[in-house]
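= Tokenised fold =
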Amino acid sequence: MSAPRWLRTGLDFLYQASGVAAALSLVAILLLIVVQMLARWTGEVFPGAPDYAGYAMASASFLAFANALNHGSHIRVSILLNSVAPRFRRALEVWCFGIGALTMWYFVWNARRFVFWSWKFNDISQGQDKTPLWIPQMAMLIGAVILAIALTDHLLHVIFRGDHRIRRDLEDSHAD
């Protein structure tokens, strides 16, 4: 297997695995809610359940971003892109993916520092769970890194191949 094909397979696997991890985070939210309901019905207390559900929601959001981008679920200005000439479209897509990738890498840089300092100072949540905050923040950072990689991947694909790799799962319905 050639290096570009191996890299493409690896990146596609990373984006898909990120989507699966996001789905598992949603399942964790469901389970946390069910366990919290059962605890209330039995007169028990599940300390920190809302906090854990919040952490799982943040994980689900950030881990889903790259997979959603590849499946065309992010909002794009398709009306503008479809109305311009192909060479202007390519320039607009390079500009958009370039700004997106730069913004995400800037976010990753600062989120990395944020997670590091939370770990360094042993910052814990204010709720009953007393969770070290670097743990849920790490899921956010991992999701942000994967999205930054995906945006950079699409940027390079537009630059070198002329088009992006975003493929919608469902076609837009057109009125006849």
Summary: The first helix runs from residue 3 to 41.
